[in-house]
Amino acid sequence: MRITIVAGARPNFMKIAPIIDAVNTRKGQGADIDYRLVHTGQHYDRNMSGSFFEQLGIPEPDINLESGGGSQAEQTGNIMVRFEKDLLEHPADVVLVVGDVTSTLACSIVAKKLHTRVAHVEAGIRSGDLRMPEEINRLVTDAITDYFFTTSEIANANLRKAGVPEERIFFVGNTMIDTLLKQQPNFVQPAIWQEAGLRAREYVVMTLHRPANVDEDRQLKALMDAIVSASRGLPLVFPVHPRTGKMLRNIGVSASNLHLIDPLGYLEFNYLVQHAKAVVTDSGGITEETTVMGIPCMTLRDSTERPETCTVGTNELLGTDPSAIAPAFAKLFAGEWKKGGIPDRWDGQAAIRIVDHLLAV
User: Fold this and answer.
1) DSSP 284
2) Nearest to 267 by CA among 11, 25, 56, 2
3) What is the mean pLDDT of residues 53-81?
4) What is the pairing mode between strands 258-261 and 236-239?
5) Is residue 242 scored above 80 in pLDDT?
6) Alpha carbons 107 and 342: distance in angstroms, whole number
7) Each residue of 289-336: pLDDT tens digit?
8) In a 10 Å sphere around its CB, with 0-12 CB exposed, 13-18 middle and 19+ buried, how is residue 246 labelled?
9) Which residue among 128, 190, 337, 341 is least packed, with the fewest CB closer than 10 Å?
10) How far apart are the first and last CA of the chain?
11) Which residues have a Cβ under 8 Å from the Cβ of 128 and sit 6 or more positions away?
12) 3-state class percentages of the chain: helix first, strand second, coil last, to nearest 5
C-alpha cells in the first residue's frame, strides 16, 4: 500500500508525526506499506513550520510545494495545481489528509478527481460556524472522503447524521495526543522562563489569532484590556502569531505583566502550557492539549468543534464578549475550576489504529 501523507500548516505536523512512526513500525514488521510525505508549504515561516519537523522527528518531506502566501483562493489554487502534478508523477493508493486547513481541502479534491481514495484524520468535527474557513474545509473534505478517522463519539454522530455509512467510520482517538504523550518528557524550558522570572502555576499562557478576535482594533483592545485587568498582575506570556502581532502594534497594547514573544517551537510552547496556571486561547488544538495536561483553559470563541474538551476536559467556552473574562478569572483564582478528565481513546495509540485500519481495508 502506497500512502501519500499531506501536511501544510503548523497544526498538521503534530498529527502526522505519529502516523509516520506507525507506518514505519508496521513496515518494519513486514507489512506491505510505505508513504510519501508532501509538505504543501502553506506555513512557510520557520517558527511556524520548520522547527516542528526537527523537534518531532519528522523526516524531510519528499517534496515541498511552496504554496504559502496569497489569499485563501490563491493558496487553494496553488496547492491544487502543484499537488496534482506531484500525485500524477507519484500515484498513491490512498491520500491521507489531517485536520482542517487549506491544504486538507485542496489535496482531498485533487485526489478524488484523480480517482484516488482519501483518508481524513480528525474527520467529523464540527463547530457549526460557517464564518470559519476551517468549518468549510471540514465539510467539503468529509463530503468526498472514503475513510473517516475520528477523535470522539461526537464526531462519529456528526458523520452518521450526514449519511456516512458505519463501516467507513473508524473511531481511533487523537493523533495530536499521541505526539503530546510521546514528547512530554522532552519539553524544553524556553528563554522567557528565566527572562520573566516565571514560576510554575504563577503565570498564564495566551494565544489569539482568529479573525473575530484580532482583525478589529476595538475588539482586540477590549479583550486584551480585560485579560490584563483580570489577571491580578500574574505574568501573561503571549507567543504572538504574525497576524496578531501586526494588529497589536496598531493598537499599542502594553502592560508591565504582558510578555509578547515570538512564536515558540512545539517543545518550548508545551513546556509553558504544562506549568501554567491557565491558558487563554482561541485555538482548537490547544484545548485538546490542556485537557490532557489538566490545565484550566478559557476559549474566546462562541463555538467549538471539540466539545469533548468542555464536557470531559478542562476547557470552558467564554465567547468573544470581553465581559466574560473577569468572572472566569475569578473562578480560577478561587480554585473553583473543574478538574476535567481525558476523553476516550486519547491514549497515545491513535496512529497505530489508523495504520492497522488502512492495512485491513
Assistant:
1) S
2) 56
3) 92
4) parallel
5) no
6) 32
7) 999 999 999 999 999 999 999 999 999 999 999 999 999 999 999 999
8) exposed
9) 128
10) 10
11) 135, 303
12) 50, 15, 35
Q: How many residues does the chain have?
A: 361
pLDDT at 325: 98
Looking at residue 250, what is its pLDDT? 85
Average pLDDT on 152-179 reads 98
Active site residue 209: yes
List all residues 6 or more positions away from 181 whose beta carbon is below 8 Å from its beta carbon: 292, 347, 348
- Domains in the chain, CATH or no CATH each: 2-174+346-360 (3.40.50.2000), 186-333 (3.40.50.2000)
Beta-ladder partners of 261: 239
Please tell me the distance from the alpha carbon of residue 282 to that of residue 261, in angstroms, as a whole number. Answer: 17
pLDDT at 53: 83
The count of C-alpha atoms lying within 13 angstroms of the C-alpha of 328, restricted to the half-sphere facing its C-beta, is: 26
pLDDT, mean over the chain: 95
The predicted-structure confidence for 89-107, as pLDDT tens digits, reads as follows 999 999 999 999 999 999 9
Per-position b or e across 96-126, b if 16+ CB within 10 A of its CB: bbbbbbbbbbbbbbbbbeeebbbbbbbbbbb
pTM score:
0.95
Q: Which of 115, 120, 209, 241 is catalytic?
A: 209
pLDDT for the residue 45: 56
Full 3-state SS string of 66-115: CCCCCCHHHHHHHHHHHHHHHHHHCCCCEEEEECCCHHHHHHHHHHHHCC
pLDDT for residue 359? 98
The grid cell for 46 is 520557520
Question: Pick from 159, 146, 79: which is nearest to 118 by CA?
Answer: 146
What would the grid cell of residue 297 be?
Answer: 483553559
pLDDT > 60? residue 17: yes
- Give kind and range of the element (H or E) at residue 200: none
Split at pLDDT 50, 70, 90, the class of 124 is very high
Helix or strand run (H / E) with residue 2: strand 2-7
Q: For 303, phi and psi rounded to 5 degrees?
A: -150, 160
- Cell 524550558 found at: 189
Residue type for position 160:
R
Q: CA-to-CA distance for 12 and 218, rounded, in angstroms?
A: 32
Distances (CA, A) of 245 to 152, 252, 255, 257: 34, 10, 15, 17
